[in-house]
Amino acid sequence: MTGKKLKSIKNLASEITQDFVSARLLPGFTSGLVVGLIEVILAISFAALIFAGELSGYVSNGIGIALIGAIITGVAVALITSLPGTVAGNQDAPSAILAVMAAGIVASMPGGVSGIETFATVVVAIALTTLLSGIFFLSLGYFNLGDLVRFLPYPVVGGFLAGTGWLLVTGSISMMTDLSINLSGLAALFHIENLLLWIPGLVFAITLLVILKRYDHSFLLPGLVFGAIILFYLVTYMAGFSIEELSDQGMLLGPFPEGNLLQPFPLSALTQANWNSILAQTVNIAIVLAISAISLLLNASGLELEAEGDMDINRELRAAGTGNLFAGLLAGLVGFQQLSLSAMNQKLGAGTRLTGLFAAGVCLAALAVGTAFISLIPKFVIGGLLMYFGLTFLYEWVYETWFKLPKADYFVILLILVVTATVGFLEGVAIGILAAIIFFAVNYSRVDVIKHSLTAATFQSRIARPKLQKRILRRYGNQVLILELQGYIFFGTANQLLEQIRAHLNNYVEKRLCFILLDFSGVTGIDSSVVLSFRKLNKMVQNNQAIIVLTGLSEKIETFLRKSGVLDLDEDSFHISSDLDNGVEWCEEKLLQSTGVLNRDTSKSIQAHLEEMIGDTELTARIMGYLEKDQLPAGTHFIHQGDSPGALYFLEDGMVTAQLEIWGEEPRRLNTMSSENMVGEIGFYLGSKRNASVITETPATLYRLTTEALSKMESQDPEAAALFHKYIAYAMAEKLSHLMSTIETLMR
Q1: CA triple 717-647-724, angle to 5 deg
Q2: Cβ atoms of 76 and 326 closer than 8 Å
Q3: CATH code of the domain occupying 606-746
Q4: Of 371, 373, 119, whose CA–CA distance to 260 is shortest?
Q5: pLDDT in tens, 494-544
Q6: Domain boundaries in the chain?
Q7: pTM
Q8: What is the DSSP letter of 255?
C-alpha cells in the first residue's frame, strides 16, 4: 500500500471518528434511519418487480439479493464519495431493465427445465450485469472519461426515462396481479377480482404523486408508506379479513419460503445457469451499463446544484464502480448515487458519511431478520410505490417536456415511449437514436455553412496600397467572391454551398466573376459528399472562366481533397493559400495585374501627395522642411515593438510590414504598406509604446517626423501645423471609414 493511499485511509478514519463525537451524529443517525427504511422498501419493490410471475416463488431470495446490493454500494459510496452525505442504493431504471431481462430469460428457457435452473440463470445474469457495471464505472472513472457519457442525445435519455416509467407502471401492475401485461391479456386486468388487486395501488401511486409534487419533506414518503400499511390493516380488520385470507387472495407479498434472506451466491449456479439465455440478453446488459452511467452522472450533476457544491464526477464513478464490483460478486443488484435521498441529507444537515453507513446498517438488520415481517406488507403498497416512480417519469418526460422542449425533441421522446410499449425497450431506444440522428442532420443542414459572404471591394488584405490601387479594388473588387465557411460540411450542407455559389455566378451577368475564394479556417471537417460538390463546382467555374481559391485548409482536409482527386481536376481551376489574408492578397494581385495598374508606377512623392491633400504649395514646402528623409535597405527594423514612439513616418516608395513579435514564435504579419501610407501614427499621437515592429520588405524611402520636429512646427509655424494635423485626421478618418465598411459587411 502506497503512502498516499495509507494517508487517505487515515484521513477517512479520522473524519468518521470526528463525526461520531460531533453535532453531526444525531442528524446523521436520524437521516440514516429514514434512508435505510426507504432502501429496504425499494429493495422489496425492485425484487418483487424482477422476480415476478414464474419467479415469484423466489422473491424472498430476490429481496436478499437486492438488500446485499444496497448494503455494499451504500457502504462503498459513503466511504469514497467526494461529497459526504451522498447515499447510494438500488435504482429504478436498471431494475426495470433487469425485470425485462428476467422475463426474457424465463421465456427463452427450454421446456422441462426446473424452476431452480431458471432462478439460477436469472441470478447469474444479474450478477454478471452488476459486475460489468462495476468494471464499466471504474474504467470511466480511472481514465477520467465521465464526460463522454454526456454525448448521448438529450431526447434519447428522456425517451429512455419515459420508457422506463412505462415499464415500471406495467411491471407494478404485473407484480400486484401476477398477470403478464400484454394486449391479449389486457381484458383480464378489468375483471373484478383483479381490479381489487391493482386499483388500490394506482390510487396510492397517484396520491404519492400529487402530495410529493406539492410538498417536500424528508419524512413524507416513509410516512405515507407506513400510513398506507396501517390504513390497509385497519380497513381489512374492520371488514373481518384474517391474515391467511388476505394472503390467499394475493393481497400480501407473502407467504415466503422459510429461511434467512441472506443466501450466499452458490458457485453451483454457474453450472446450473443456461448461458445461451444469458448471452441472448447481451444488448439489454449493455443498455443497463450505458443508462446506469448516464443516470449516475445526471444524479451527480443534480446533487451539485442541490448541495451548491462541487463533486468529482470521476471519483463518484470510481465509488459506484467499487460498490458494484463487490456487489456483483455476491449477485447484488446494480446501484449508485441517489439524487433525492442525498439531497434530503444535505437539507437535514446530515452531510456526513455516517448517514450512508447507518442506512446500510438498517438494510443489514432487515437482511438478518428475514421474511417474517416482509411477507405481511400489502402488495398494493409496494406496487403503488413502483407505479409512483413510473408515473413520475411519465409526468416529467411526457407531460412537462411538452412545454419545455422543441416539438422535434418531444417527438423523439414520444416515439421511444410508444415503441417501448408496443414492441420492446431495445427497439424503442434504437429507433429513438436513429430519429435523433435524422433530426440532427436535418437541423444542422439548415445552419448556413457560409459565415460571411464578402467581396474584395469591401474586404481587402492587410496591404495598405496606393490610392489608385485602392480605387481599382473598390471598383472591380466584386469580381472576387469571398466565402468564409463554418461548421462541418457534409451531405446536408455541401449541396447548399454549391447552390449559393451557383446563385452568385448567375448574378454576375454583366461583370464576370473571376475568383471564388473559399476559406476553410472555420470548418471542423468534411465528408465524402464534398467531392461530388467540388466536381460540379469545377465544371461551373470552368464555364465561367473563374478560379477557385482555397484558404485555411487543415492538413487533414487538404490531404483528403488531394487523395480524392479534387485538387487534381484542373490545376488552372484551383489555387491554395495558407490563410484568408494571403488568399485575398493573391486575388488582389491578379486583379490589379489584369487592369495593368500593378505594373504602372503610380506612386507620388510625399511632397506631391501632401500638396494634393492640403492644396497649398507654399504650406506643403514649409511642412516638408520639418521632415527628415531616410533611405533604408530591405530587412531594416526601423520601429521596434515596445519602444517609445519617437517619430511618425511617411512612406514614399518601397514596401514595409508591421508585425507582432511574440517570444518563441514566428512573427505575425499585421499589415503591409506601400507608397503614400503613414507608419506609426497611432502610437505617435497616443504617446503609447509601440505595439508592433515594422520592417522594410524592399529598399524604401521614408520621411520621418520626430516629436521634437512636430513641437517645433507647432510653435514656429502654427498655420502649417494646423493643416498638417488636418491632413493626419483626414488620413486616419479614411482608414476608419474603410474599417467601418468592412465591419458593416461582416455584420450583415
Answers
A1: 35
A2: yes
A3: 2.60.120.10
A4: 371
A5: 888 888 888 877 776 555 678 899 999 989 888 887 888 888 888 887 777
A6: 24-110+117-211+228-256+274-437, 450-595, 606-746
A7: 0.59
A8: -
